[in-house]
Structures are given as C-alpha cells and as structure tokens.
Amino acid sequence: MHKDQGKTGGVKGYFPKSHLHVLGCTTLLCFSFGYIWYVSSGTSSKVSDTTSSNTQDFHKIKRPRMIYTKPQILKPSRSDVLMMTPWFAPIVWEGTYNSEILNEEFRQRNVTVGLTVFAIKKYVVFLKTFLETAETYFMVGHRVNYYIFTDRPEEVPKVALKEGRNVVVLQVQNYPRWQEISMRRMEMLSYFSQQRFVNEVSYLVCVDVDMKFNDQVGVEILSDLFGTLHPGFYAAERRSFTYERRPASQAYVPRDEGDFYYAGGFFGGTVMEVYKLTKQCHEAIMVDKANGIEAIWQEESHLNKYFVYHKPTKILSPEYLWDDNLGRPEILKKRRFLAVRKNHAAIRNK
C-alpha cells in the first residue's frame, strides 16, 4: 500500500491524498456553478420580479417636498447656549431644530405618544386647563394617549379631542401625605409601562399636572431617554445642585459627581427605557423607606441619581418647564410648559 493511503480520513485507504484534493475542489466548483446556475435561472427570476414590483410601488408613493434653509456647518444656530453634552446628547433649544423635518420623520414611523399625569385628590382641578392646552400645543398632528392617573375618575373633565387622541383614565389610590403620592408615581409608571403602555404607545412623556402648555411641544423632544433642565438650576454650578447628599440614601450623589440638575416634572423616552428608569427609582425608594429615609426631593432625587449613571440621550432646555416667577431670561426664546399659579397649602393633602 502507498504510504499516503489510509491518511485521508473518511474512507481510509481509498484515494491518495493529492487525488482526493483535486476531486474535492472539482466537486465543490461543480456544485457552486450548479447552484449559481440554478439561482440565476430559477429562484433569482422570482426575486427579481418581486424586487422590480417593490421598486415600482416605491416610485408610485408621493412624498412631500422638503424645502428649507440649508444647515451651515460653520454657523451654529445658537452660540449663546450649550447645544451638545460631552456624551453627544443634544440639548433642545428654540432655533436648534427644524420641526417640519422632524414631524415628517415621525409621521413615517407612525408614532403614538403617551402623555402621563397624576391628578390625585384636589389636583384634579388642574386637568381641564392641562388637557385643553395640550390639545392646542402638544404633539400637534400626531396620535396621543392621555393617561390620567387619579383617585377621582368621576371628576375627570370632558374635553374636545382631535382625531387620533384619547383620554385613558387609570384609577389609583391616594395616600395621606403628598410626598408619598409623589414617590408612588414611579411605582405606577413602572407597573403600567410593563402591563399596558408597551402595547399602546411608542414613547412616554411624564409630566406634572399643575401646569399648562403655552407653546409648541412636539416630536423634537422624543428620544430613547430624555430629561429636562430644572429652571432653578440650569445655570448653577455642581456644588449648588440639591442632590440627595446623605450616603445612607439610595439617591445619594457625591459632591464631585453629576452633570445637570433635572426636574422631576418632565421626563420620558421609549416605553422600555421609562420602565427601566421608574422601576429602578421605585426599588430605591422602597429601600430608603425600609431604612426610614426619605430623599430630600422624593422621586426627583432618585431621578437625578439615575441620570448621573444612565445618561439621557436628549436633554430639554428650561423652555420645556418654566415658572414665570423666575422672570424671563434672554436665552429663553419660548416658554413652552408653564407652572400654573396655585396655593400649595390649599391643594396638598386635601
């Protein structure tokens, strides 16, 4: 027997190695050419027909023309404010985006937005103004579900809604202290995000109810995870932020950490990202509660802790949460979402 016989694996001693190598390559080439011929002569024709049909259908679709001023690389739209964070998250100010471009992009994606508010106890009195102004200014031209969390469903006002917009009343219990009500929001948002919202909307926008829309708030705010600069701290130094400073609290942020101070009254993102945020904040709140601790600003403190270590993908300027008691600084070109004047003592714990 030849010395190379029996070393080819498979069927031992049947072909010399060199012959087997040639035969294998020939077989592979024949199979390959046969497969190519089969595809080009048979299956390929079907794929080609389908592709041709799809291409023809695509060209039949009429898309609106997009006519707007060309962006200038060397001329930023705003030079008086920070427009981008160190982690490349845009900060949304008036003059930094084109609403027509964004509206068309989100219409093509067929997006539905959920807007959540808590109207517990006497806070239900703010709902009428809130809903009426939202119908005028919030996500105009897009589908919206207003999710109203309340312990007084019979007092939710009837407001005329545009097509594609709905009010959904979610009955929840109240608590004796307003601080407890405030903190429980994270629990409710987490639960309903997983059980319901994920099946009904693409994005969630979570805001306070004792507010009114005063100018356009549209799809420019939407992103995987967004927060809003607190109107009282947007220009403050880190050392001035009212983070929770007690190490015993789950909301604790060391004095040498943190980027911005975010408002608890306006945040959101995709349903899944809001679920992760609210779930983690609720769990942290419950740990604090078990240890007899309450963070200095309740759920807002836990929200800020979350944003320190889970950076938002977009940040809203104070245009999106403003109080006229703070005046009207020059950088504020719009006041989109405004605090309503109220007597806190007459509303809270009632």
Describe this structure in words.
This protein has 350 residues and is of the alpha/beta class. It is 34% helix and 14% strand. The chain has helices at 17-60, 99-108, 127-137, 178-195, 271-290, 298-309, 344-347; strands at residues 91-92, 112-119, 143-150, 165-171, 203-207, 211-213, 225-228, 266-270, 314-316, 337-339. An eight-stranded mixed sheet has the order 1-9-7-8-5-2-3-4, covered by helices on one side. Helix 3 (127-137) links the parallel strand 2 (112-119) and strand 3 (143-150). Helix 4 packs across helix 5 and helix 5 crosses helix 6 (298-309). Mean pLDDT is 85; it is low at 1-41.
Q: What distance lies between the first and last C-alpha atoms, to the nearest angstrom?
A: 102 Å
Strand order of the largest sheet: 1-9-7-8-5-2-3-4
Radius of gyration over all CA atoms, rounded:
29 Å
Q: Indicate the structural class.
A: alpha/beta
> What share of the residues does DSSP label as strand, in percent?
5-15%
* Mean pLDDT level: 85
Tell me the total number of β-strands: 10
| Helix fraction by DSSP (H/I, runs of at least 4) | 25-40%
The rough form would be described as: globular
Order of helices and strands: HEHEHEEHEEEEHHEEH
Poorly predicted regions: 1-41
Helix segment tally: 7
